[in-house]
Each structure stands twice: as C-alpha cells, then as structure tokens.
C-alpha cells in the first residue's frame, strides 16, 4: 500500500488528489510545518534526505518529487487512466504541462514569495532596501515572466478546456498547485478560462475527498 508523507498546506495535496481520482487505497502520514519558519519538521528527513513534501513510500520504494510520484502512481496503479495514449498530440501536451508545473511555473512563484518574505527577516534598518530590491526584481523580471506564463496557460485551455485537450488528466493535477499559487499571490482576474478551470477542479469530488484526507489547505 502507498503511504503519502503529507505536509500540511503543501504540494502533496496533489498526490492525495491523484490517488482519490484513481480510487486507490492509500495511507497518509501527516507532518506539520514549523509555525514560524514554515519549514517541514526534521522527521521528514528520515523519509528522504531533503525532507521536502511530497514523498511517498511503497514497499521498498521511496519516491520524492511530485512529477516523479505522479508518473510512478500512473505506472503502477493507473491502469492507463488520466494519461493520453502514447504517440497522440494530447500526450505531447500532457508531457509538456506535467513538467511545466514544477520546471517553469513554480520557480518564479516561489521567488515572488521569497522576495516578499525576505525583508521581514532583515534587520529593521536595511528592511527598506530589501523591499526595494524585491519590488525591482518583481517588476522587471518575475512579474512579466509570470504574466507570460499565465497567458500561455490561458490560451492552452482553448484546446478543449483541460491542459492536455478535452479530457481531464494528471497534467491538470500537476498544474493545480501553480495556478492556485498564482491565483492567491497574483490574481487570475485577467485569465477567465484559467479561473474557470480552477473552479472546475475544485468542484471535483476527488479533489474534495483529498482535502478531507489532507486537512485544510490555503493555496499559498
Ligand atoms: N519540486 C518539488 C518541491 C518540493 C517542495 O519544495 N515542497 C515544499 C512543500 S510545497 C516543502 O517541502 N517545503 C518545506 C521545506 O522546505 O522544509 C516537488 O514538486 O516535489
């Protein structure tokens, strides 16, 4: 049986959701972030050296990195579900968005969060300098990059309403976290299809069931 090492308010929500979509039984081991640093507790490092979430264990296997976990789950218990057929146009799109989520979308969103948090941890005297640097990086680099990415996501949803075409796939599961993060940190107002997609995934029974298993989730 797969055990999901689940950190509250984290990317592992997607793993619970995928397992719920597939109707597979699994166990959840919960870990709580440190209230001050928001980092994972040291016990998670006993499961995987980096101590990041998600991690799953399955028999003798320990698998980290959300995309790798999604591939492992689909390969072992997916039975061909939530992945377009090999060789199809949809499969190419699926692979692109599956990797885009952590490879391209999350880095500027994480940097946005770090630049917003950084001044709070600096000595009061130089905090204004920290804020100035953060807002310059945001304005000249991160902001435009995030907007370009949101524009691409918005146009992709024209091809059938899901990231890989007209069927819901694990690429939608992977893309949920960056779109939720962008929605909460930047706003999706100018991207109505993306906003509607987000509302649709939040209505899925498996998404709701995963929230019940994983606990409260604040999309941040
Ligand atoms: N690209 C990795 C990112 C893993 C990651 O940074 N996870 C965050 C949770 S969303 C984490 O564990 N943060 C707590 C910490 O760094 O201590 C993945 O998708 O698995």
Average pLDDT score? 95
Order of helices and strands: EHEEEHHHHHH
User: What overall form do the CA principal axes indicate?
Assistant: globular
Tally of DSSP helical segments:
7
Say which molecules are bound, naming each kind only once.
glutathione
Percent in strands: 5-15%
- Compute the separation of the termini in Å: 30 Å
Q: Low-confidence parts lasting 5 or more residues at pLDDT below 50? A: none
User: In which range does the helix fraction lie?
Assistant: 40-55%
Q: Which sheet architecture does the biggest sheet show?
A: 4 strands, mixed
Strand order of the largest sheet: 2-1-3-4
Count of beta strands: 4
Helix- and strand-based class? alpha+beta
What does the radius of gyration come to?
Answer: 18 Å
Characterize the structure shown.
54% of the residues lie in helices and 9% in strands. The protein has helices at residues 12-22, 66-77, 89-117, 127-156, 170-185, 192-202, 205-214; strands at residues 2-7, 26-31, 55-58, 61-64. By secondary structure, the chain is α+β, with helices and mostly antiparallel strands. The chain is globular. Helix 1 links the parallel strand 1 and strand 2. The protein starts with a strand and ends in a 6-residue tail after the last helix. The protein has a 4-stranded mixed sheet with strand order 2-1-3-4, with helices on one face. Glutathione (GSH) is lined by residues 7, 10-11, 39-40, 51-54, 65-66, 102.
């Amino acid at each position: 049986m797969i055990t999901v090492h689940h950190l509250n308010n984290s990317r592992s929500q997607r793993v619970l959701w995928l397992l719920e979509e597939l109707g597979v039984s699994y166990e959840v081991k919960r870990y709580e972030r440190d209230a001050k640093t928001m980092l994972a507790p040291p016990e998670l490092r006993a499961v995987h050296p980096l101590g990041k979430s998600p991690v799953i264990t399955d028999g003798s296997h320990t698998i980290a990195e959300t995309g790798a976990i999604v591939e492992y789950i689909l390969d072992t218990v997916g039975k061909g579900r939530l992945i377009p057929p090999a060789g199809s146009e949809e499969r190419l799109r699926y692979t692109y968005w599956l990797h885009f989520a952590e490879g391209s979308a999350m880095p500027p969103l994480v940097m946005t969060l770090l630049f917003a948090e950084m001044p709070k941890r600096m000595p009061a005297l130089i905090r204004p300098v920290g804020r100035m640097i953060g807002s310059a990086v945001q304005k000249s680099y991160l902001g435009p990059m995030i907007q370009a990415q949101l524009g691409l996501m918005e146009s992709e949803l024209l091809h059938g309403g899901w990231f890989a075409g007209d069927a819901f796939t694990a690429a939608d599961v992977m893309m949920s976290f960056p779109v939720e993060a962008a929605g909460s940190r930047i706003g999706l107002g100018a991207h109505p299809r993306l906003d509607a997609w987000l509302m649709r995934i939040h209505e899925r029974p498996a998404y709701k069931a995963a929230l019940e298993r994983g606990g409260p989730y604040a999309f941040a």
